[in-house]
Amino acid sequence: MYLPEENRYAAMEYNRCGDSGLKLPKVSLGLWHNFGDTGNYENMKRMCFTAFDHGITHFDLANNYGPPYGSAEMHFGTILKEEFSAYRDELIISTKAGYDMWAGPYGDGGSRKYLLASLDQSLQRLGLSYVDIFYHHRMDPSTPLEETMGALHQAVISGKALYAGLSNYDGETMERACRILDRLGCPFIINQNSYNIVNRTIENNGLKAAAVKNGKGIIAFSPLAQGILTGRYLDGVPADSRINTDGRFLKKEQLTPEKTECIRTLHSIAARRGETLASMALKWVLRDGAVTSVLVGASKPQQILDNLKVLESAPFTQEELDAIDVVSKTYAGLS
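Below the sequence we write its predicted structure tokens.
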């Protein structure tokens, strides 16, 4: 059985999640990619070992991560059972429900029936009696918000989740949800949203400001914009790029010459700071304390180690932030 590094907590920094008592590592590991049946199980294990050996305690999933749906939870559940069973209380494990999961009218959305059934299925796949955080994965205007929030509350009071979270909500809807959950006494502590230099939606839709105002944490997924901010695409699309092997997310047509020039400018700013574009991009997401953790994906252990270099990244000067803002607005104008 795997034995983690004894000094695994030495270098990692942990942030309190909003006003709650829960702390998350600055860098968390997302299992959105490379943990489905198309991935290599031994590589999955090595990535989990590398993460935990370096203080990454938070592993994030959803019911439909794969492919196929559910397979990421099944593979991680096997790793938990075979390698991490002695360390469950040192881990934060989250999952979600909200997007399509199974056929018929009850396998999608925000209904009480779907959310609670999905959580039961997730726990079975993971081999756990509870998850630490259970998220509603997306806003569902066809379901009363009171019903969806009531389902999250039920998940907590049943002991199947310790905390509730919301994902892909805007600021106004999050605040309405927050008021409902407060009345119920449900420990809603975190928002999961896409956020990076070239996607600042949560600044524009009020989510970031509302989270700060209400004392809620934010965990940012796609902090490297599906790889755009890693520097891999400065000179075209590499042959082994996910753009060529998995077209579900990042599309080749997104990388126009004008957008590529923006990325080159960001790369130059990072070079002047003496770091990689990826490290600078992760540091930017964490720059002002509003974001609790950045949620990174990986296809191999070395990528996790590379992302951890953000812990060594220097604070930004105002001049650097202004220069990044110019590029960010230019990129947004090209969309």
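The mean pLDDT is 95.
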